[in-house]
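Dear all,

This email documents one entry for the complex benchmark we are building for the journal club exercise. For each entry we list the sequence lines for every component of the assembly. Then comes the predicted three-dimensional structure of the complex as a token string, followed by one or two observations. Please use this as the template for your own entries, and keep the labels exactly as they appear.
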Amino acid sequence: MDDPVKRLLQRLIRRIPSQMLKITLDKWGRLTATQQRSMDFTQPKRVLTEKLLSIYEENEWTVKHVTELEMIYIMDNPNQGMWNAYQLMDPEDDSQSVNLMQFKEQFKSHLGEIVRHVSVKMKKHTDEAVWIRIAWGDGFSRSNHLKPTYVVHQLQTPYVFVTSLTSKQKPLLSQALILATRHQNIKDANLSGLKLTAIRELLMRQYQQVFPTKYHSPLTEKTQTVLNTQTEREQAESAANRCQMACEAFGDGMLPQLQSAVYKLETKFRDPANKTMTEREEPFRCVVKFASTNLLESLRQCASSGIASTPVTPLLSSIPLKGKNYFVVTDNGPGSSQK
Amino acid sequence: MVSSVARTPLNSVVVQRRSKNKSYRQSYRSCLGAASRLCFTPGLTARRLNASRRAPKSRDITEKVSPEQLALLMKTEWQLSYITPLYQFRHTQLRSYSRQLSAFIAAEKQQGLAMEVEGPQSSFRVSFSVVQGMVETDDDAETVFIQIHSKSLFDRQDEPQRSVWRGWLSCINGNPDYLRSLPKDFICLPLFGSSGAEGLTCVVKSWFQQTFDCCFGPLEISNTSLQWLLALWTHCHMESSIQHLKMNWTVPVVPPLQVTYTVNPQDAWELWSSVRKDHQEENEGGEEVKDESIVDIDEVMRFTQALKSHFYRHFRLDLSAGSLNQVSTALGSAKCSGRIKISNSKYMITTLTLLTECALLKMPI
């Protein structure tokens, strides 16, 4: 088909799973009552797509309408694609007083100055976060709506979450963000994941944290059964201790779903059994990647089952503590590189 | 005569009862009795594979084997199986085998066996060939390569046929005692690799089983073998850069944790040499001067242990609690599920020697 907007709509409908289609369209509210009634959502997707494309002609929808629909879908289903977290640094004196209107205006105008043919859409979510959809153009072509960047930011917090951003677009977005939020700098927070909700929860500490207590924690009661011998009691105590320390390091209950953590190790090889390597000056370079469908859950289990010795090493507990999943470790201690 | 390693006294391996009319086949394991006694072999698993092997040296295999033929085996991931010795398999009959297998596939298709490949109108053409020159010893049989091409009736005459399945049978540095103990009508090509549709693999296996009275079985690559590959491939770094030493471990928690541990090649090589140096220094007091080109299982285990302890020092997580699934370098990759890929022809012989040994060990007879 020749019409790029129609193609955009077609791709979008294909992307939205059938069970989400009705809800999303209803929220969008751009179908007339008759048209709504004419959509039979039990039919195969192919048929629904055809129907919507003909309604598109009827209603004369524009790119503005279609991108609006896309944004509604993404905002309700953010856990797709790779999200990266960034942190705003060095706030100016008036950064706390930036309100939504100001931010919107400033961001649009700054970005518009540095990028030609950029199309920006901004929307406030129910949780007060601002969602920004950016369709980038360059000096020669109009905005590319097929590969938009999405940005999520809660004003007065230092974090910004971004998906689908190329390395060329990064400095432009950074510039617009720091100017609009009245900060001097923005850096990579070294945290990325497929689920936006998970990385936000991690950074905002919105999961059940466990703090060291001096007295018997309720966790030990979970593992207690009738114990006869001294050995069993000792074992149970060690198990309870491990469990406690595992939860202190990673949290209790449902943990935010991170998929991976990467450690770039540049430390010296030190092993009493190997004299040659221990005397070596250069670091032993390696990269370790941990991956799982729920990384924090896996690590917590490693600690509570004894596969990982407790207390949990700071390298691993830094993931929830610092809200990062990329680390560069040198002999001077773990840090993170500016990416 | 089947006897277990534990109960086989050293000297009974050499003495075989052979009557004038029949010869008794030895079990592969009884042949190992001698070999495993010569070296220090800790642990049951280590006793089953050779406890030491010749270190790989870059050999210009292209002097012996044509590059085109080598290319057939490289850069593809093969699924490995073992095959028991083949009865009356002749390298001179390959043309006939090609025809027979084509006919067999056509017959199976007619019977409605799902081929998963191509449309209903396609025909299959099979070609058997020999990869000449790969064998190391006179006891090894030459490697056989099989290709299945498919041609759809709708294709034009001049359109090239698509290769839809490839496989090979090989025996590299097979245990000579075992090979010589086989009755003369049997050929041993214990290592089988296949790549392509599973349906075709099954058909090919069925044909072999019917025609040569043999059995197939899955060949997993054990933890020990993977460690051997880690060490042997690292050993090659000076001659051909391995580019990285990558290991994939799985830790059994819920949900399962995958650990990918990638080591800088130069650092891996220095660690390996330090392990070898320490080992040699330890044995200095021994009676024999150690041949530098021999690698012991001991060194291999120490190398892996060193890697694990560096990991432990940082994460306090013991990788021994997990399982090693995959090792890979620029020279190739190997998975415990029995998948192997050889990316550099120079070290092909070393890898295939190890795998031939695994296949011979896994065979039930």
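Observations: Chain A touches chain B at residues 263, 265, 267, 269-271, 273-277, 280, 282-295, 297-299, 301-302, 305, 307-309, 312-313, 315-316, 329 (CB under 8 Å). Strands of chain A lie at 83-91, 119-124, 130-135, 149-153, 159-163, 183-193, 260-267, 284-291, 326-330, 333-335.
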